[in-house]
Write a structure and sequence with these properties.
The structure holds 2 protein chains of 2 kinds.
Chain A (H helix, E strand, L loop, with lengths): L3 E2 L4 E5 L4 E7 L6 E7 L6 E7 L4 E3 L3 E6 L4 E6 L8 E8 L7 E3 L3 E6 L1
Parallel strand pairs in A: 2-11
Antiparallel strand pairs in A: 1-3, 3-8, 4-5, 4-9, 6-7, 7-8, 9-10, 9-11
Chain B lengths: L3 E4 L2 E4 L5 E7 L5 E7 L5 E8 L5 E2 L10 E5 L2 E6 L8 E8 L7 E3 L3 E5 L1
The chains are: A mainly beta, B mainly beta.
Amino acid sequence: GESVGLHLPTLSVQEGDNSIINCAYSNSASDYFIWYKQESGKGPQFIIDIRSNMDKRQGQRVTVLLNKTVKHLSLQIAATQPGDSAVYFCAERGSRNFNKFYFGSGTKLNVKP
Amino acid sequence: SAVISQKPSRDICQRGTSLTIQCQVDSQVTMMFWYRQQPGQSLTLIATANQGSEATYESGFVIDKFPISRPNLTFSTLTVSNMSPEDSSIYLCSVVFPTGNYGYTFGSGTRLTVV
């Protein structure tokens, strides 16, 4: 199946700084991507998504960038807060089965007060 | 938004035994999915639970080890059979809802420890 991976396993940032979490994917035919946030003891929660016909999408304090040329995704969190501390996963929708998602290895974000 | 309830939330089981995990959704969904998340790892799809037909398993997962039931459009179970310590993981139920974004909504997971 598709392969999705992350560059950094852990990221520590100071409260108030911006955070950038990166992700690489392998299937150039993938057309839809999602970032999930998983807090301790909980299931992953949807943060933001992006389709392959877009380069950038903004939400509340979060921005996802998609670079199809190098098959790279990033999640930017503005003014990082302690509540942002979690593990973040990118997920790539399967190109053959649109109901399947393949998850990257995850980045743990630690926000220091 | 719809709610997914998983039971049990956690369990400690003896090796060689089996555990059945339940997933209940408060609205009808066509497809339900079971994922495994090993300690400190990402999520791996085990199988797709299809209503009215057998589950579809991913490579590396077999029905004898992870039998799945899907009796209706709001409920599914995953059984972890003949458990060993290597089965210690979080098991997550997820669904795709027909409205809103096209991603998964996850249950809170079942944390399984096999001793």
